[in-house]
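Ticket #4471: complex job returned nothing on first submit. Input attached below:
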Amino acid sequence: MSDNQHSTDLTTPGASQEVFADPGMPEHKHRRADHEPAADKRAELQVVVLFVISILGTIGSLIAYFAFRPDGTTDGTRFSTLTLGLGMAFALLGIGLAAVHWAKTLMSDTEVSEERHAQRSPDEVREVAVQKLQDGVKDSGIGRRGVLKGAALSALALFPLTIAVPLVSSVGNDWNVGKFRHTRWEKGMRLATDPTGRPIKAADVTIGSVFHVIPDVSEEERTSHEWITEKAKAVVLLIRLDPRDIESDQSPKGQTWSHEGIVAFSKICTHVGCPVALYEQQTHHLLCPCHQSTFDVANGAKVVFGPAHRPLPQLPITVDDEGYLVAQDDFDQPVGPSYWERLK
Amino acid sequence: MTTTTTERAAAGAADYLDQRTGIGHAVKEFARKTFPDHWSFLLGEIALYSFVVLILSGFFLTMFFVPSMALVTHHGAPNTMDGVLMSEAFSSTLHTSFEVRGGLLMRQIHHWAALLFMAAIVTHMMRVFFTGAFRKPRELNWLVGTLLLILGLGAGFTGYSLPDDVLSGNGLRITDGVVKSIPIIGSYMSYFIFGGEFPGDDIIPRLFTLHILVVPGIILALVGVHLLMVVLHKHTQYPGGGRTDKNVVGFPLFPVYVAKAGGFFFVVFGVIALMGATMAINNVWNYGPFDPSPVSAGAQPDWYMLFLEGSLRLMPGQTEYVIGGFTLSLNILIPAVIIPGLLFTFLFVYPFIEAAVTKDKNEHHVLDRPRNVPVRTGLGVAFLTAFIILALAGSNDLIATHFSLSINSITWAFRILFFVGPWFAFWVTKRICLGLQRKDRELVLHGHETGRIVRFANGEYIEVHRPLDEQERWLRVNYTAHRPLEIEPATDSRGVRRKGYKNERRLARLSRFFYEDRVEPVTPAELAAAHAHGDHDELGSSESHGEITSGTQH
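Support reply: We reran it on our side without changes. The output follows.
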């Protein structure tokens, strides 16, 4: 995009010009409003009308404010939102379109050319600038006072610690990341339905049914502030399969973690922790709706598709004397997404 | 009479101000500053204005939002939520929506403005990229812009989570999972963010502070820098007659751009208000307060986060490894950290790579037509293709349900497309650009087809071509077709190996990739030759001679 000064002379064929010449700005075309007083008047009227529309919009919005009180229903709120918003939109669009129309029809539309200057400062300015910096450096004597330089830099580098240390020590609460390993489940704790907290009898779980399960804790604990954090680790999906369909589960040799085809798996995806909630009865597949990791419940919740790597941890369960499902123990591994020291 | 009074008052006020601030200098400098006109320059303005709308509507919302995770029993509308235990954040969101008049409108305006803000940033960056507006002297402003893009993502993310509903809570949970996958410090990072285990009771107040103070504060500062640099550099302009790297052609700031740009702010605000009034968005009362157990299928993040979501969905899980007892979750790290890292790195370094392979030290103020830099345009389209494929993959469940397709095959198709698509898009785009350049040459040399068929006395038929007028011709010939860098031999004249030869050779290879295929603009000599030898446009050229000569007399 060089602005060359060559001239184009096509009358001499075979001329050796390398580049065309800039033809300059195209001819200016006048608008009707520039030379027709009627068009000018009309444009002015249009601008005025647009401003008036804006004023009407504001008035409409105020009327809507007083006329439509939200009544607490979704429809009422929607209607109030719609009327307030439409008034506001007209108020704004009226001003905006009026200003733009004014600029386009009535203000000058002759393009002007303004010179640019290189960003770089001229040599003499640079020289003076460099000289000033050098004077400053010399003045401070930073060059020959090495110890001073070191002390100044160290002080500056260290002082943020006065803020960072107290911040970092508290920002992660107790920094006890070992809590990832444990959930609220313990030996003998009953399995209860989520969210009502009703304990589940093994007999109530029919083949093919799915229960969303939480530990059977007191009502008080379930309504406490800390519960959500416990629940975030402890939620379990309980499924009863036909025992003949179960190829394998995660029970170690000599133990049974399931009960007559009833298996319980952590509901927290081993990918990034979404609740795995979509169960397909025909295939015994559990699908995580967030990233589509698919787990095979009949086969120890192994991953059959998607971005997760590990099976969902299995909660060892059995029944107590009254026939309620209870946990044999906590999970044998941390639930949820992987992290660096998970196996340590 | 009134005019003179007003004028006198204005003069008095101006004098008062100038004596104390010297504002006269600024007014003299800026009042009639020239800005070029083009619709695509409005994209950045939309971004700026939707940011202003975000601040205005955000201020309204902070008056009623309570950034607290304390458990309360909600009383009041909607009746589905009456008596439900929830966080104060969620309860106050419901209160704002149902009991504050205009509250829901402001929430919807705020959300739509955020979506528009990001869309405007992305399209503005596309305009800047494809027209080469990032070239010297604007490389630093490109970096500031890219930072603004990332901060915009941060603002959107922190704001989206504030209502503490089921959807946003699951979003945070995904964040927690991603953070935990970071080697060595992942668990501690998670504690750092959540103040303990997920979700804890700190995250909403922390996000609130980030969302209403830290992130918008930095955005505001960087927007200031961004605009200051625009003023410093003066705006770029599209190529055309009379527009060079040494001038800027357009309209004066006062009054034309004060009216146009000021008016455009109201238009943008008005359109967002219209969207907020008529289009429901994020009806959190349908989802309910955050609970770690439920999740709804078909949930989508806001559009600008879709690419991350899609990236997570595409990665096969086999890539989680245990090394020496430590777990390395590449199945999360690659899609959620490394891929976005690569995408942003491309944005950050591209201007410098192009400058290096072009060895171009000149200031550029006239924009490129995208076709005239085929490899840049191809790379840009390839980048967008990768972004769009990831975003579509983020909606793979909706694609599956809407088109009754298998989610597994869709995922596999996207996995393959992610690698093949950008490459193919690059190749096609580059070819289209070269084709368009050849078309330009063809037009300049032979003119437009007129559809007029003429039969000569000897029976020959020709179609008359109409030569281009000088403005159109200038548009099509006014560009530089850069050539690949040429490097000196590995050894100097005395047979000694030159230092830095290897780097130069690497750069030259890259330069060849950029500029090996090129179409040179037509030169006047070529045009003259075409006219002299052209047989079938003889008629046209004889007609045109007059026009061209008259053109050069301007």
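Residues 32-105 of chain A form one domain. Closing as resolved unless it happens again.
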